[in-house]
């Protein structure tokens, strides 16, 4: 089961990296979303895949029964999802604004902060 | 968006969704649910209202600026953690009181006030982003991100 | 939990039952107070004047709390508090040792200086937009990163400061800022995602996220687990955050676009968080693997120094020039990590402390110079020495400090690093430190020559929309205080050298750190492994 997940995560990462290598911000955004999901799956798998027994101590016992799911990776994923969700919302607004202001989604043409023909510093008085 | 159907349904839908979001918030205490998902539902309720009647109508309806709502939520959450300084227990320890209303014992905790804060943070932040996106493109529309 | 009457369980196995001394709260209060102040400022976003007052009060409180924490740590050793009274490693622990506490204190001082400077630099629209709330959240993230004892929590604080930095970066929504912010946002987000991947693997290997617990277990797992790969992933992620070569190109693309106060905060604080995390993870948690990868780190460090220095020499815009100086400093700190002896790590820590103050000050100097002379570029600046001699003297002090020339604070970390690299025979690393310092001296010397000494014909053009009177306390106080610090620790380096040495020794042998998180383990076994 872990091996299957490893392959799946690998595919996710490959697709994410491919999209991130694009020049267009919208594709890069999709790449970032995929990357976030790949990491979430990775975290899920690192907690070992088990049967879906919820990690709740039954009444009358003082420790977990055997074979329960590991709750910690799920907490980590939940945090990571919340964070990546808010980042995605921010980036969505930012790319939209960038497209409005700069008139392009091609990062090669976004040269406002680093102009192509930048002046050299003066060589003397 | 100016369809009659949406404009008729939107107020009802918004009210129902806001109510449901509070139900989800309170249910999150011992069952699936909670502040984050409740806040998301409430934010989408306001987003629907915004689609139907425009961003200005939403801003009027919620009275406070969305970021101020988020700030209030963050403040409540932080205070819920800081209260434990007076009880000699570490930061963010859940503290409980059991007041009785009409012969019903209602357990209240800093956990609930923390979750209420989360609800407001999510509601404020997501609403502010949604409104920024719904606004008609103009020279100065943004300024509410993050 | 809902009803008080349940089956009796042994709570001492899971919870902290002893009452917590009030002094332990010093670990949590800096972060909590910053979040509370940030929230308060978000609520009063309309009243522009009130915001400044609240924010400065909050930052002053942060300085006091961090100073108290540092004092506590110096006297009693590392301080730990767990969230929600759950025992470590299950509860998230905040642990402050000397390294974290001293970094937090210096960051707070610098943030206070920048906050006061911001009173003139950030106008009403910038405040309504939320400069001060974002500043508070940034400081919450920075302080949290320095004080947390849990590696996933470190990731969370990285994200907190990242989202606050996004807000600060696009504070005027000018097209140039949006261009810079887009590159900064995407590359930094990828960097933190790499960090998260590394944390995931770390959890898979160790089954714990508590740093003290990891430090305890690293020795036993060394034969079986792929720890070198993991360390390489961590180094790559942190190098990206710290803007080390070859992943440094986002910094010159974005750091010169926002308001100058924002640049100052970023240049002083954000890259140093990457260095802090690098030192914490590679030196304290995975020292053997760091040793294996030390050549790779050293090469990256040397190239970072040289690229930074040469880049600074090639810039016309003084903000970009300072950006490259930040990069060159990162190279020096990474050299300390690469060598890895306690002396070298103490040099890196000292350099980081010095760099936090100097780089912030240099950006503020750049802003003030541009305000006085009406230009950002070396070809436009001029005549500053005649117009503002005291300001020129302060600038000169920072230039000396940044170049590492005696007698100012910048020299000592370079001396410590040089000695450490010569001690292990890495002559080429020592040479690159010297060459980089020499080139930086050239670049800054030229700035002083052109912008300060060169006479400017005719009245200087004014920067639009900025009309603070000369000698405004909001400019004099922060620059004066930072000058004082730089001169003081240049002339009297002994206490700081001593402090960083102790910090580095505690990192090399984290027994006190582990003891502070797991006091019960020491009692059980009599002594620590």
Overview of this structure, please?
- The complex is a heterotrimer of chains A (125), B (146) and C (529).
- With 125 residues, chain A is mainly α.
- Chain A has a domain at 2-52 and 69-102.
- Helices cover 58% and strands 0% of the residues of chain A.
- Chain A contains three helices and no strands.
- With 146 residues, chain B is mostly helical.
- Chain B has one domain.
- Chain B contains five helices and four strands.
- Chain B has helices at residues 4-27, 35-53, 55-62, 66-82, 110-134, and strands spanning 96-97, 100-101, 104-105, 108-109.
- In chain B, the strands form two sheets. A two-stranded antiparallel sheet of chain B has the order 1-4. In chain B, strands 2-3 form a two-stranded antiparallel sheet.
- In chain B, a hairpin with a 2-residue loop joins strand 2 (100-101) and strand 3 (104-105).
- Chain C has 529 residues and is mainly alpha-helical.
- Chain C has a domain at 293-455 and 472-511.
- Chain C is built from 23 helices and two strands.
- Chain C has helices at 29-43, 48-76, 98-121, 124-129, 131-147, 151-169, 175-206, 211-221, 227-242, 250-254, 260-285, 287-292, 294-313, 318-339, 342-373, 384-387, 389-403, 411-423, 427-453, 473-491, 494-508, 511-517, 519-525, and strands at 79-82, 93-96.
- Chain C has a two-stranded antiparallel ribbon.
- Chain C is globular and about 85 Å long.
- Chain A: The chain crosses the membrane at residues 6-21, 28-45, 75-96.
- Chain A: It is a multi-pass membrane protein.
- Chain A: It is found in: Cell membrane.
- Chain A: Keywords: Cell membrane, Membrane, Transmembrane, Transmembrane helix.
């Amino acid at each position: 089961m872990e091996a299957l997940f490893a392959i799946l995560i690998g595919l996710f990462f490959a697709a994410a990296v491919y999209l991130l290598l694009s020049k267009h911000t919208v594709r890069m955004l999709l790449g970032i979303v995929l990357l976030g999901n790949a990491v979430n799956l990775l975290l899920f798998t690192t907690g070992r895949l088990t049967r879906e027994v919820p990690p709740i101590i039954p009444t009358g016992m003082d420790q977990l029964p055997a074979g329960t799911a590991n709750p910690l990776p799920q907490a980590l994923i939940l945090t990571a999802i919340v964070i990546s969700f808010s980042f995605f919302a921010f980036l969505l607004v930012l790319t939209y604004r960038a497209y409005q202001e700069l008139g392009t989604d091609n990062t090669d043409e976004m040269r406002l902060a680093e102009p192509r023909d930048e002046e050299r510093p003066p060589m003397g008085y | 968006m100016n369809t009659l159907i949406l404009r008729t349904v939107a107020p009802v839908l918004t009210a129902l969704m806001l109510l449901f979001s509070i139900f989800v918030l309170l249910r999150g205490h011992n069952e699936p649910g909670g502040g984050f998902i409740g806040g998301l539902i409430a934010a989408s309720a306001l987003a629907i209202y915004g689609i139907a009647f425009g961003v200005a109508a939403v801003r009027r309806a919620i009275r406070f600026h969305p970021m101020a709502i988020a700030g209030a939520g963050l403040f409540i959450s932080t205070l819920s953690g800081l209260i434990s300084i007076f009880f000699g227990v570490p930061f963010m320890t859940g503290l409980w009181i059991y007041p009785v209303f009409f012969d019903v014992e209602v357990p209240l905790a800093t956990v609930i006030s923390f979750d209420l804060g989360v609800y407001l943070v999510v509601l404020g932040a997501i609403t502010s982003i949604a409104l920024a996106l719904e606004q008609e493109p103009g020279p100065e529309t943004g300024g509410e991100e993050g | 939990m809902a009803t008080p009457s349940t089956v009796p369980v042994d709570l001492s196995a899971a919870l902290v039952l002893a009452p917590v001394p009030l002094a332990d709260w010093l670990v949590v209060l800096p972060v909590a107070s910053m979040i509370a102040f940030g929230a308060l400022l978000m609520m009063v976003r309309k009243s522009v004047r009130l915001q400044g007052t609240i924010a400065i009060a909050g930052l002053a409180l942060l300085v006091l709390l961090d100073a108290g924490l540092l004092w506590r740590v110096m006297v009693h050793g590392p301080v730990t508090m767990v969230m929600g009274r759950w025992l470590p490693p299950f509860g998230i622990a905040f642990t402050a040792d000397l390294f974290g506490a001293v970094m937090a204190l210096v960051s707070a001082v610098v943030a206070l200086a920048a906050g006061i400077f911001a009173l003139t630099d950030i106008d009403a629209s910038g405040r309504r937009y939320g400069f001060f709330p974002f500043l508070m959240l940034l400081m919450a993230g920075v302080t949290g990163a320095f004080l947390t004892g849990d590696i996933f929590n470190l990731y969370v604080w990285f994200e907190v400061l990242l989202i606050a930095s996004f807000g600060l970066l696009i504070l005027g929504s000018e097209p140039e800022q949006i261009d810079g912010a887009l590159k900064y946002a995407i590359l930094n987000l990828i960097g933190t995602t790499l960090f998260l991947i590394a944390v995931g693997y770390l959890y898979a290997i160790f089954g714990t996220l508590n740093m003290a617990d990891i430090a305890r277990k690293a020795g036993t797992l060394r034969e079986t687990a792929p720890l070198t790969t993991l360390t390489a992933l961590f180094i790559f992620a942190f190098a990206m955050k710290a803007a080390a070569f070859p992943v440094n190109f986002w910094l010159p693309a974005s750091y010169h676009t926002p308001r100058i106060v924002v640049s100052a905060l970023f240049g002083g604080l954000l890259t140093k968080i990457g260095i802090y995390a690098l030192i914490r993870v590679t030196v304290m948690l995975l020292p053997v693997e760091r040793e294996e990868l030390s050549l790779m780190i050293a090469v990256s460090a040397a190239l970072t120094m040289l690229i930074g220095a040469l880049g600074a020499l090639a810039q016309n815009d003084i903000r970009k020039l300072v950006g490259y100086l930040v990069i060159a400093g990162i190279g020096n700190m990474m050299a300390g990590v690469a060598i890895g002896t306690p002396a070298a790590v103490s040099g890196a820590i000292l350099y980081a402390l010095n760099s936090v103050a100097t780089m912030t000050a240099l950006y503020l100097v750049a802003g003030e110079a541009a305000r006085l002379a009406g230009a950002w570029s070396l070809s436009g600046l001029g005549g500053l020495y005649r117009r503002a001699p005291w300001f020129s003297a302060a600038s000169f002090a920072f230039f000396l400090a940044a170049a590492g020339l005696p007698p100012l604070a910048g020299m000592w970390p370079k001396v410590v690093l040089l000695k450490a690299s010569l001690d292990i025979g890495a002559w080429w690393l020592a040479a690159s430190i010297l060459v980089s310092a020499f080139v930086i001296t050239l670049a800054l010397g030229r700035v002083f020559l052109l912008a300060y000494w060169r006479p400017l014909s005719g009245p200087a053009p004014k920067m639009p929309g900025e009309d603070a009177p000369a000698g405004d306390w909001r400019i004099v106080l922060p620059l004066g205080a930072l000058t004082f610090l730089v001169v003081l620790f240049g002339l009297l380096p002994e206490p700081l050298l001593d402090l960083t040495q102790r910090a580095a020794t505690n990192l090399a042998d984290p027994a006190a750190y582990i003891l502070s998180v797991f006091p019960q383990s020491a009692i059980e076994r009599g002594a620590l492994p």
